[in-house]
Amino acid sequence: MFAIEGLAPWCVLLPRRPRLAGALGLIGLQLLIAATGNYGIFNALAITLCFGMLDDAVWPRWLHRLALRRRLPQLLAG
């Protein structure tokens, strides 16, 4: 726990693979903490912050298309 909480956030400053490992480590730790029933909504908030560590190559292609389809009408209207 101390290694993940102490070292994984610093992976934000590193290249893609260590950043992905840090994000997965933090997400895994938060899921384990959530499984014990502690801290309520804070686990979901911490997982949400970890999504910022992930780049576009991590997400499946269908998710890119879905996001573009939902955002395109907003871009055309604005």
Protein model, in words:
With about 80 residues, the chain is mainly alpha-helical. The chain is about 65% helix and about 0% strand. It has four helices and no strands. Helix 2 packs antiparallel against helix 3. About 10% of the residues are buried. The mean pLDDT is about 85.
In short:
The chain is mostly helical and 78 residues long. 67% of the residues lie in helices and 0% in strands.
Layout: helices, strands, pairs:
Elements: H1 2-7, H2 16-35, H3 42-50, H4 61-77
Helix pairs in contact: 2-3
Number of strands: 0
| Helical content class | 55-70%
The total count of helices amounts to 4
Distance between the termini: 46 Å
- Shape call: globular
Strand content: under 5%
Low-confidence stretches: none
For the sheet with most strands, the description reads: none
Rg (C-alpha, Å): 16 Å
Provide keyphrases for this structure.
78 residues; mainly alpha; 4 helices; 0% strand; globular
